[in-house]
Structure to design on (230 residues):
């Protein structure tokens, strides 16, 4: 039987047999504004609330910007940060190996079980070609698994294409792929989510509506995508 953990995103776990497989590496993909970082933040904060220490590795935003985003959703994280149940790391590194060393130090020190990496796109700056990107991503996924972590890794997809990752290799290395969409329909946009891949899981193969509410992302597993979500 597969050991699963709750994502912390209301409605999502119903799409994946009740939760994400423990110690898996999940790619979270989407274009700009689809809610990738919010989805992953809820995963991390839910862990901190429920006894699974979490680490958010932010390769793009500054720590203060992340905290402001969380405050905007009304997420009270100060107590988790002070008690070292939740941490934000913005590593300074010159290679993927040096970044992984910093991550390993924090994971072991804080006994972290959930990791968010936002975003994998930056790793391409330390790669000479597509093969090196693949190797770097493989090193990241392997390291997080060896540390016993369940991880969500953000990747960016290109608007107007069918690509679901920045470099076209990430989805083949991850245990799971979750894709967030921003779909134009007549004179407005609709958000949606799909599970493209999830190892050891009989997952939904449908598009499901998503809304970003005042308290974060909500998935509506029993609603058709273009219906009005009440």
């Amino acid at each position: 039987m597969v050991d699963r953990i709750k994502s912390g995103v209301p409605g999502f776990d119903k799409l994946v047999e009740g939760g994400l497989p423990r110690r898996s590496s999940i790619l979270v993909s989407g274009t700009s504004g689809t809610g990738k970082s919010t989805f992953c933040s809820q995963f991390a904060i839910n862990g901190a609330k429920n006894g699974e220490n979490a680490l958010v590795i932010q390769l793009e935003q500054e720590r203060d910007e992340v905290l402001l985003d969380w405050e905007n959703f009304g997420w009270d994280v100060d107590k988790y940060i002070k008690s070292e149940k939740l941490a934000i790391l913005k590593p300074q590194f010159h290679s993927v190996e040096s970044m992984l060393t910093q991550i390993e130090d924090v994971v072991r020190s804080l006994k972290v079980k959930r990791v968010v990496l936002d975003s994998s796109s930056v790793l391409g700056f330390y790669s000479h070609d597509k093969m090196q990107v693949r190797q770097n991503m493989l090193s990241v996924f392997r390291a997080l698994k060896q540390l016993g972590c369940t991880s969500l890794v953000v990747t960016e997809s290109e608007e107007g294409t069918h690509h679901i990752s920045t470099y076209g290799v990430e989805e083949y290395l991850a245990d799971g792929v979750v894709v967030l969409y921003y779909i134009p329909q007549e004179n407005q946009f609709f958000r949606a989510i799909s599970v493209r891949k999830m190892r050891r899981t009989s997952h939904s193969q449908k598009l499901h509506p998503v809304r970003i509410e005042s308290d974060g992302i909500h998935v509506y597993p029993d609603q058709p995508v273009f219906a009005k979500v009440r």
